[in-house]
Design the sequence.
């Protein structure tokens, strides 16, 4: 069975600094996708960044980038130039390549950005 | 584009009662998935509907059932409510499979409290 582990329940960072959130996963599949979702107090899950397992190049989206280590089954999220609006729960998620919508989530990391 | 909309936003029910939650998918999406998110946890997959049929199911009892209508909207029904069913229920919609896009868009959720 696939599992996703986020080992940091809470983290904090000063505004404008950089923070890295960790995620590891376990799967025997070779075709899969990984995601980082942000859930602010408004509760809506918002996609931050996506990585296809077959791509070696790490995904980037503006201030957000990932370090995808396929052999180590590691998928960390780096947030550069942290902003107050980045304060939220962050969830790492996995989906099998042949699936559609059946996401497996970690337990989340609560990120607080301090002024 | 209204995105994924869920109703109601909050709901309080008594143990043993039945509840129905509703979801309208994002325009152009035909697949709807439901997740249960307990306090302090990541979302757990309940089931997925496509072409008006349940296609995948997570580890949830038969008290959880659903339906998808011809316009792709969906309902989640929970019978014989237990205190442990108190959670945020998230609906996510996905685009048609032929687009090979696994991205899921989430609604703001329904907060269910069972007393």
Sequence:
């Amino acid at each position: 069975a696939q599992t996703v582990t986020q080992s940091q329940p809470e983290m904090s960072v000063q505004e404008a600094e950089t923070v890295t959130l960790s995620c590891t996963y376990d799967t025997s599949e070779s075709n899969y996708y990984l995601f980082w979702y942000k859930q602010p107090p408004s509760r809506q899950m918002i996609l931050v960044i996506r990585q296809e397992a077959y791509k070696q190049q790490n995904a980037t989206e503006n201030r957000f980038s990932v370090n995808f280590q396929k052999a180590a089954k590691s998928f960390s999220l780096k947030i550069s130039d942290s902003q107050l609006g980045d304060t939220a729960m962050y969830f790492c998620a996995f989906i099998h390549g042949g699936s559609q919508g059946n996401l497996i989530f970690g337990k989340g990391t609560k990120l607080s950005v301090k002024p | 584009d209204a995105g994924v909309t869920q109703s109601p936003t909050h709901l309080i029910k008594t143990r043993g009662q039945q509840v129905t939650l509703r979801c309208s998918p994002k325009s152009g999406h035909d697949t709807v998935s439901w997740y249960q998110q307990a306090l302090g946890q990541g979302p757990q997959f309940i089931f997925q509907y496509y072409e008006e049929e349940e296609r995948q199911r997570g580890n949830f009892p038969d008290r959880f059932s659903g339906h998808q209508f011809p316009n792709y909207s969906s309902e989640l029904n929970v019978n014989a409510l237990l205190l442990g069913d108190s959670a945020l229920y998230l609906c996510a919609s996905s685009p048609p499979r032929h687009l090979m896009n696994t991205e899921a868009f989430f609604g703001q959720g329904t907060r269910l409290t069972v007393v």
